[in-house]
């Protein structure tokens, strides 16, 4: 049976992960992007089951306790986690799977899927990160402050990752990410260790 590849993309909130992933998916429609569960409220335009599975904290904890999440973490006051089953099934079918998650979750995946390719997206500077968070205009001031405080810690962990991509010029970052993910050296994931 063919084995798929698992890529984990992380980096501080507002760095442009979602933007990069959207462009990547347009260019590679076969890439499977995991849909996470979260206790965060939907933003304008977000669709349940498409952007996230929006769940209550009790529902989230029940999933975590049942072992239904591949990884999970608390981020800026909300819980986020990756449903395990769709990932395991798609990897077994030989598909290419992408997780877009925060630092603690990415660290957990290193334990469960050591073969996963782990990529950290860096901002050109923390000032630019703040500008992007504010220009996105989707988070309240308190949420932006929490995200910025966390960003300082996250950026310091970039060296733990296999690859670093600086998202300064969007097109260049996309090309770099594409080269990393779609180069023939990506290692097949045999399964959980
Ligand atoms: P994340 O998913 O990492 O939280 P987003 O993809 O939502 O970040 O991007 C945050 C904001 O920054 C958005 O308004 C997006 O349009 C903008 N952005 C993303 N990449 C760039 C870039 N290379 N240059 C300037 N702005 C960018
Ligand atoms: P947002 O609230 O901006 O959608 O996401 C906040 C952070 O949670 C982002 O850094 C995003 O990558 C991360 N995130 C989204 N889904 C998951 C997940 O399933 N697990 C973990 N650990 N982080 C996630």
UniProtKB/TrEMBL annotation:
Reaction it catalyzes: GMP + ATP = GDP + ADP
Gene3D superfamilies noted in UniProt: Guanylate Kinase phosphate binding domain, P-loop containing nucleotide triphosphate hydrolases
Record InterPro entries: GK/Ca_channel_bsu, Guanylate_kin-like_dom, Guanylate_kinase, Guanylate_kinase_CS, P-loop_NTPase
Guanylate kinase-like domain span: 4-182
Pfam family, one: Guanylate_kin
Location(s), subcellular: Cytoplasm
Main location: cytoplasm
Enzyme class: transferase
Record EC number: 2.7.4.8
Chain residues that bind ATP: 11-18
Single GO MF descriptor: GMP kinase activity
UniProt keyword list: ATP-binding, Cytoplasm, Kinase, Nucleotide-binding, Transferase
Keyword Transport: no
HAMAP family per the UniProt record, alphabetical: Guanylate_kinase
Job description of the protein: Essential for recycling GMP and indirectly, cGMP.
Family affiliation: Belongs to the guanylate kinase family.
Protein known as: Guanylate kinase
Upper taxonomic lineage: Bacteria, Bacillati, Cyanobacteriota, Cyanophyceae, Pseudanabaenales
């Amino acid at each position: 049976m063919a084995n798929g590849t698992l890529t984990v993309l992380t980096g501080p909130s507002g760095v442009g992960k979602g933007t990069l992933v959207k462009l990547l998916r347009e260019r590679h429609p076969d890439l499977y992007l995991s849909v996470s569960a979260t206790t965060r409220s939907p933003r304008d335009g977000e669709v349940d089951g498409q952007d996230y599975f929006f769940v209550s904290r009790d529902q989230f904890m029940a999933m975590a306790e049942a072992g239904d999440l591949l990884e999970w973490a608390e981020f800026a006051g909300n819980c986020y986690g990756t449903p395990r089953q769709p990932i395991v099934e798609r990897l077994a079918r030989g598909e290419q799977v992408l997780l877009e998650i925060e630092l603690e979750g990415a660290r957990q995946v290193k334990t469960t899927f050591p073969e996963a390719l782990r990529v950290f997206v860096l901002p050109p500077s923390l000032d630019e990160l703040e500008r992007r968070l504010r220009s996105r205009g989707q988070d309240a001031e308190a949420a932006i402050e929490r995200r910025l405080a966390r960003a300082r810690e996250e950026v310091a962990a970039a060296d733990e990752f296999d690859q670093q991509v600086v998202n300064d010029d969007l097109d260049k970052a996309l090309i770099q990410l594409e080269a990393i993910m779609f180069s023939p050296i990506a290692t097949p994931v045999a399964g959980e260790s």
